[in-house]
Specification:
The protein is an alpha+beta fold and 317 residues long. The chain contains 12 helices and 10 strands. The strands form 3 sheets. Strands 4, 5, 6, 7 and 8 form a 5-stranded antiparallel sheet that branches. Strands 2-1-10 form a 3-stranded antiparallel sheet.
């Protein structure tokens, strides 16, 4: 194998540098053991991502170039990992029955009307049916190997969850909040006086015992009118500054006077107010557990890949 690798190194074009420009000539990107990953392989694997980048940053060519380089570098590392795993599968002596591969192919082919449509699609992508079959085989091996070596649902102890909660308490802090209902009266041209009068009448009825939510359903033109003007729990950033200043000085169970703005007249009811606080562990336990599971899965994956790298020949260009 050393002879083959040495020969390959002599054939590598000088332009095929690892820091190649976004528009890459074909050449060797990296050698992993006795397998070659070319720049064409990289480009083919990120084609859809590049199209998305060009659409999103159409007027920012410098951004496209930078993000393309980052995407290429990340994908090269992914392809290195894939080659390491495929090599491990072969080295250990695992076997994948062809019938299993055929079943996968049959499932994948359901996306196409018939085999002819599949063949034409492959041809448009520069692939043969044989290379397509090999791609399905490799994808299946990767799925099985990662599933075997890297648990997707690792067990996280309650102690770890508790420690994470304690060490990251501020992450779970909620700001000052009010549970708010609002009546919005839009002001038409030359009708501001009548709208103000209506707002005061509504305020009077509410003070006399009328249900604020029912009044909102009848009179409000706000987006939450059908829900009785219910905004739920909101913080200062949710509201416009002029409304937030008033809402966050109100006590629980109180109503505001009519608030005149350029957009209309507002009446607010603060049903409940609560100061900034850290959410209890019971509320965030599940989210913390999922965060730790994700982190542990990544750690185990990296640990396994690093072990494969330590016994592999890898050469970047």
């Amino acid at each position: 194998m050393k002879y083959i690798i040495a020969l390959l190194l002599l054939l590598v074009p000088l332009v095929a540098l690892r820091a190649a420009p976004p528009t890459l000539v074909n050449g060797i990107a990296v050698i992993v053991n006795d397998n070659i990953v070319t720049y064409k392989d990289v480009q083919n694997s990120i084609r859809d991502d590049l199209d998305a980048l060009e659409r999103r940053y159409a007027s920012q060519p410098a951004v496209i170039e930078q993000k393309t380089r980052e995407l290429q570098a990340a994908r090269i590392e992914e392809l290195v990992e894939y080659q390491l795993v495929l090599h491990e599968f072969k080295t250990v002596g695992y076997n994948l029955p062809e019938s299993f591969i055929q079943n996968r192919i049959n499932e994948d082919q359901k996306k196409y009307d018939n085999r002819l449509v599949l063949i034409k699609t492959l041809q448009s992508q520069g692939m043969t049916y044989e290379s397509y079959r090999q791609k399905i085989r490799e994808r299946t091996i990767l799925e099985l190997m990662f599933r075997q070596k890297v648990p997707s649902d690792p067990i996280i102890s309650p102690a770890k969850i508790g420690t994470y909660y304690t060490e990251n308490a501020e992450q779970f802090r909620l700001p000052d909040q009010v549970k708010l209902r609002m009546i919005v009266l839009t002001t038409q041209a030359n009708e501001s006086l009548s709208t103000i009068k209506m707002a005061k009448e509504i305020r009077t009825q509410v003070e006399a015992g009328a249900d604020f939510a029912e009044m909102a359903k009848v009179y409000s033109s706000g987006s939450q009118a059908s829900q009785g003007g219910d905004w739920g729990w909101v913080d200062r950033k949710t509201l416009r500054e002029d409304l937030a200043k008033i809402a966050f000085t109100m006590k629980s169970g109180t109503h505001s006077d009519p608030i005149e703005t350029a957009q209309g007249i507002y009446l607010m009811k603060v049903e409940e107010a609560r100061p900034t606080h850290i959410r209890p562990l019971s509320e965030v336990h599940e989210a913390i557990e999922q965060t730790l599971k994700t982190g542990e899965t990544k750690r185990l994956r990296k640990q396994w890949i690093d072990r494969l790298k330590s016994k592999a020949f890898i050469r970047y260009f």
